[in-house]
Design goal:
343 residues; mainly beta; Tachylectin-2, Chain A; five-stranded mixed β-sheet; 2 helices; globular; binds beta-D-mannopyranose
């Protein structure tokens, strides 16, 4: 989300040629940041007033999952409320919510919208709106369970809201990204498949599940969205981060996606925590060429990674893109280019 307030930033470390690099003071938010918390991770931030606001996933020490509002002047030092968000009825009667986790936040037209994974006979997508991050109004769930990772676009398409989501089962065994449209944030339809897991030999880090991560923002190449990809290893799931570019007019079309990951668990706070080996993006702040991505690390803390857009585009164009025979996907020549155009 673009902002007039300077976003938190740090230049790429000297000598590094990574496309995305970690903030050196990670984690930005520690697990015991508020008195009740066991862990704070997979959280969303947006520009707000003369600083930033956020909705944070805090699991308490009974490991009850809930979402909390927070505020910051600089995007790094956060005051997170000690009590969870209490919802008021929005466009429907209050809906049962056994748990809330993995929020995303986006400004659309006149208010902020929050989506999260809402426990309603299994996980589905909860929706609420707020004007001030003090009062929140809960709307209809978008879908039937089981669904997670509902991410709204910041603008309407032909007068309709658009949401990415990841339909799944309760066993975390599969997950592809779909898009759905709604005229009123209540009734969702025209569900279309956007992006599936990849064949193992093509790009194995994203071969078990993929899920939308940050709210997409418009660039000269299309909508840029950071997403998570999962591989099943003999040590369990491993969550990494990639990026996709979706068509500006028809966001159900993927123009490119990254073949190698942009960030995979390697730092100590990503490798070790309540769930090891997790990098899980939920928000991106943009300021011209600069982008700061907030991600949950090891289901325990919030961390930040940084990107310069120009370096994205140049890594796309530097290398010729080739089509290999008998393969479903176009493939860049091995790992020379990070971008992988999808026919
Ligand atoms: C997913 C969600 C995320 C979590 C991830 C790794 O299914 O539950 O909240 O970060 O698993 O445990």
């Amino acid at each position: 989300m673009s902002t007039s307030v300077p976003i938190p930033w740090q230049d790429r470390p000297e000598g590094s040629n990574e496309v995305m690099w970690r903030y050196s003071e990670n984690p930005v938010i520690g697990r015991y940041h508020i008195p009740s918390s066991n862990s704070i991770f997979n959280s969303a931030v947006v520009p707000f007033g003369d600083g930033f606001a956020g909705v944070f996933r805090c699991d308490n020490q009974a490991v009850q999952m809930n979402i909390f509002a927070g505020f910051s002047k600089d995007g790094i030092n956060w005051d997170i409320n000690h009590d969870p968000i209490v919802m008021k009825p929005g466009n429907t009667l209050m809906i049962e919510s056994e748990y809330k986790y993995d929020p995303r936040v986006v400004w659309i037209e006149d208010r902020y919208w929050v989506t999260w994974c809402n426990g309603y006979h299994g996980p589905t997508i909860g929706i609420a709106y707020t004007y001030d991050f003090k009062e929140f109004f809960q709307c209809e769930n978008a879908f039937l369970p089981f669904n997670r990772n509902g991410v709204l676009f910041p603008q309407k398409f032909d007068g309709r809201y658009a949401m990415l989501s990841r339909l799944s089962d309760n066993g975390h065994t599969f997950g592809d990204i779909y898009i759905s449209y709604s005229p009123d944030m209540k009734y969702w339809g025209e569900h279309r498949c956007v992006m599936k897991v990849t064949p193992f030999p093509q790009s194995a880090w994203q071969c078990t599940k993929v899920g939308a991560g940050s709210v997409p923002f418009l660039t000269k190449e299309g909508w840029l969205m950071f997403y998570h990809g999962v591989i099943t290893t003999c040590n369990g799931f491993r969550y990494s981060m990639g990026a996709a570019i979706l068509d500006e007019k028809d966001p159900s079309k993927v123009l490119y996606r990254t073949r190698p990951y942009l960030l995979a668990p390697a730092a100590p706070y990503e490798l070790t925590g309540d769930v090891q080996n997790v990098v899980f993006p939920c928000a991106a702040l943009q300021d011209g060429e600069k982008v700061a991505v907030y991600y949950g690390a090891a289901d325990t803390v919030v961390a930040m990674a940084l990107v310069i857009l120009m370096k994205f585009w140049s890594s796309q164009k530097k290398q010729p893109l080739i089509k290999r025979e008998n393969e479903k996907y176009f493939a860049c020549k091995y790992f020379h280019s990070i971008w992988w155009p999808v026919p």
